[in-house]
Specification:
It is built from six helices and 13 strands. The chain is of the alpha+beta class. The protein has one domain (28-211). The strands form three sheets. Strands 1-7-8-9-10-11 form a six-stranded antiparallel sheet. The relative contact order is 0.17.
Amino acid sequence: MTRHNMASVVFMVLAILLSMAARADKPTLQAHSAYQTIVPLTVVPYPCVSVAATGARILLAKDDLVALSTSGAQDSSQSDKQRMAFLAVGRASRLLSKVTPTQDDLGCAVISLDISMEDRDTLFVISELLEEGKAAVVREGRRTPELKIFVDHASSSIMGSENFRFADGTPFLSLTTWVSEATINIKHGLVINDLANAAAQVRHTSSMGVPR
């Protein structure tokens, strides 16, 4: 082997070692999920409103939405807790504004949602009430509420989501809770610097954003 060829081999080995070291030093966030079992309402919460989901309808107590929309949280500039309560007021109010005079076969007022960005924001109120066991879920073609559902809190290095499923694993409601582009927690209106903390924040908040 000539001196030139030997030098080329040495440089190649050094390049490979440097590349391996760079990959080893770079932290990565692995995709993961946390499953939560939910016991929803097993009776229709009259007076109620009905929201269409995929292969299901979600029944909410109208009184719960009214209470949220009039909770008195008028200022979003104070603490994270106040900001999240302020968001809940606006979202519940917008959800109530979508109630129509039409009633479904269970006697619940139908909510008409256009899943645009504005209407999609109201889904966070629905997801919170689902997680708190304050909503009933009736599968398509049935009249009685489900006895158990699951929510999958999924996160990766680029986004976080919540996926609500029936007991057999079939999804009926999915929403994005944060994205890494600006590391914003969409659900709770928080700017978060660390992606791992963002995922944890989504999993460990409840009841319109009040930390557990």
